[in-house]
Amino acid sequence: MTIRYSKKHLRKDLLMGSVYLICGVAGIIFDSGIFLKYGFTALGVFYYGFYFYKVKFQYLELEDQILTCNIPGNKKEIDLTKFTRIKKIADEITFLTLHEKLVIRTDLIAREDLPVLKDALASLELEPIKNPFKKEIIKTI
After folding, report:
1. Whole-number Å distance between alpha carbons of 72 and 89
2. In angstroms, rounded to a whole number, what is the distance separating the alpha carbons of residues 37 and 56?
3. In the chain, count of helices (H) and strands (E)?
4. What is the dihedral of CA 132, 96, 110, 75, to 10 degrees?
5. Cβ distance 14 to 51 under 8 Å?
6. How many CB atoms lie within 10 A of CB 121?
7. Which residues pair with 96 in a beta bridge?
8. If pLDDT is split at 50, 70 and 90, which confidence band does 121 have?
9. Which residue ranges run through the membrane (predicted)?
Protein backbone atom coordinates (compact mmCIF):
# COMPACT_ATOMS: atom_id res chain seq x y z
CA MET A 1 0.00 0.00 0.00
CA THR A 2 1.30 3.44 -0.91
CA ILE A 3 0.37 6.67 0.87
CA ARG A 4 1.06 9.62 -1.42
CA TYR A 5 2.21 13.17 -0.76
CA SER A 6 -0.53 15.78 -1.05
CA LYS A 7 -0.70 17.65 -4.33
CA LYS A 8 -0.45 20.96 -2.45
CA HIS A 9 2.88 19.92 -0.93
CA LEU A 10 4.26 18.74 -4.28
CA ARG A 11 3.14 21.93 -6.03
CA LYS A 12 4.90 23.99 -3.36
CA ASP A 13 8.23 22.30 -4.13
CA LEU A 14 7.71 22.77 -7.86
CA LEU A 15 6.80 26.44 -7.43
CA MET A 16 9.74 27.17 -5.13
CA GLY A 17 12.10 25.44 -7.57
CA SER A 18 10.77 27.51 -10.43
CA VAL A 19 11.06 30.80 -8.52
CA TYR A 20 14.62 30.12 -7.38
CA LEU A 21 15.68 28.93 -10.82
CA ILE A 22 14.20 32.01 -12.51
CA CYS A 23 15.99 34.26 -10.01
CA GLY A 24 19.24 32.39 -10.64
CA VAL A 25 18.94 32.63 -14.42
CA ALA A 26 18.05 36.32 -14.12
CA GLY A 27 21.15 36.80 -11.97
CA ILE A 28 23.29 35.13 -14.64
CA ILE A 29 21.74 37.19 -17.46
CA PHE A 30 22.06 40.52 -15.63
CA ASP A 31 25.51 39.68 -14.22
CA SER A 32 24.54 40.05 -10.55
CA GLY A 33 26.47 38.90 -7.52
CA ILE A 34 27.77 35.37 -7.20
CA PHE A 35 25.02 34.35 -4.75
CA LEU A 36 22.28 35.46 -7.11
CA LYS A 37 23.92 33.63 -10.00
CA TYR A 38 24.76 30.30 -8.48
CA GLY A 39 23.03 30.21 -5.10
CA PHE A 40 19.52 30.68 -6.42
CA THR A 41 20.21 28.38 -9.37
CA ALA A 42 21.43 25.65 -7.00
CA LEU A 43 18.39 26.12 -4.72
CA GLY A 44 16.09 25.81 -7.73
CA VAL A 45 17.79 22.61 -8.84
CA PHE A 46 17.54 21.20 -5.29
CA TYR A 47 13.82 21.95 -5.09
CA TYR A 48 13.26 20.31 -8.49
CA GLY A 49 15.24 17.32 -7.21
CA PHE A 50 13.03 17.13 -4.10
CA TYR A 51 9.93 17.33 -6.27
CA PHE A 52 10.99 14.50 -8.58
CA TYR A 53 12.14 12.36 -5.63
CA LYS A 54 8.77 12.83 -3.90
CA VAL A 55 6.88 11.96 -7.08
CA LYS A 56 8.91 8.78 -7.61
CA PHE A 57 9.05 7.65 -3.96
CA GLN A 58 5.76 8.50 -2.28
CA TYR A 59 5.52 9.48 1.41
CA LEU A 60 4.70 6.13 3.02
CA GLU A 61 4.82 2.54 1.85
CA LEU A 62 3.33 -0.35 3.77
CA GLU A 63 4.44 -3.79 2.63
CA ASP A 64 4.82 -7.06 4.52
CA GLN A 65 4.30 -5.45 7.94
CA ILE A 66 7.07 -2.87 7.28
CA LEU A 67 6.28 0.85 7.22
CA THR A 68 8.70 2.90 5.12
CA CYS A 69 8.78 6.70 5.32
CA ASN A 70 10.44 8.25 2.25
CA ILE A 71 11.68 11.72 3.09
CA PRO A 72 14.50 13.04 0.87
CA GLY A 73 17.77 12.28 2.63
CA ASN A 74 16.09 10.40 5.49
CA LYS A 75 14.45 7.08 4.58
CA LYS A 76 13.20 5.20 7.65
CA GLU A 77 11.77 1.70 8.00
CA ILE A 78 9.99 0.30 11.03
CA ASP A 79 8.50 -3.15 11.55
CA LEU A 80 4.78 -2.88 12.40
CA THR A 81 4.91 -5.93 14.63
CA LYS A 82 7.35 -4.18 16.99
CA PHE A 83 5.25 -1.08 17.74
CA THR A 84 4.58 -0.52 21.39
CA ARG A 85 2.51 2.63 21.06
CA ILE A 86 1.04 5.09 18.57
CA LYS A 87 0.52 8.73 19.55
CA LYS A 88 -1.62 11.23 17.67
CA ILE A 89 -0.99 14.87 18.47
CA ALA A 90 -2.45 17.60 16.23
CA ASP A 91 -1.23 16.79 12.70
CA GLU A 92 1.46 14.29 13.67
CA ILE A 93 1.35 10.54 14.21
CA THR A 94 4.24 9.13 16.24
CA PHE A 95 5.11 5.44 16.14
CA LEU A 96 7.12 4.19 19.09
CA THR A 97 9.08 0.97 19.47
CA LEU A 98 11.49 0.08 22.24
CA HIS A 99 14.45 1.64 20.40
CA GLU A 100 13.04 3.75 17.57
CA LYS A 101 10.63 6.59 16.94
CA LEU A 102 9.00 7.59 13.65
CA VAL A 103 7.02 10.81 13.24
CA ILE A 104 4.64 11.20 10.32
CA ARG A 105 3.03 14.51 9.43
CA THR A 106 -0.56 14.05 8.31
CA ASP A 107 -0.66 17.41 6.50
CA LEU A 108 1.76 15.93 3.93
CA ILE A 109 -0.59 13.02 3.16
CA ALA A 110 -3.07 13.20 0.29
CA ARG A 111 -6.66 13.58 1.50
CA GLU A 112 -7.89 10.44 -0.18
CA ASP A 113 -5.08 8.35 1.37
CA LEU A 114 -5.52 9.51 4.97
CA PRO A 115 -8.58 7.33 5.73
CA VAL A 116 -6.78 4.33 4.23
CA LEU A 117 -3.83 4.93 6.57
CA LYS A 118 -6.12 5.32 9.57
CA ASP A 119 -7.88 2.04 8.74
CA ALA A 120 -4.54 0.26 8.41
CA LEU A 121 -3.42 1.64 11.77
CA ALA A 122 -6.71 0.64 13.40
CA SER A 123 -6.15 -2.94 12.28
CA LEU A 124 -2.84 -3.20 14.18
CA GLU A 125 -2.90 -5.49 17.17
CA LEU A 126 -2.32 -3.00 19.95
CA GLU A 127 -4.39 -2.28 23.00
CA PRO A 128 -6.99 0.47 22.43
CA ILE A 129 -5.23 2.63 25.01
CA LYS A 130 -1.99 2.51 23.00
CA ASN A 131 -3.64 2.93 19.60
CA PRO A 132 -5.83 6.05 19.18
CA PHE A 133 -7.17 4.74 15.84
CA LYS A 134 -8.68 1.57 17.30
CA LYS A 135 -12.28 1.96 18.23
CA GLU A 136 -13.74 -0.77 20.39
CA ILE A 137 -17.24 -0.84 21.72
CA ILE A 138 -17.25 -0.80 25.50
CA LYS A 139 -19.84 -3.19 26.82
CA THR A 140 -21.84 -2.09 29.82
CA ILE A 141 -23.22 -4.57 32.29
Report:
1. 24
2. 29
3. 4, 7
4. -170
5. yes
6. 21
7. 85, 101
8. confident
9. 12-30, 36-53
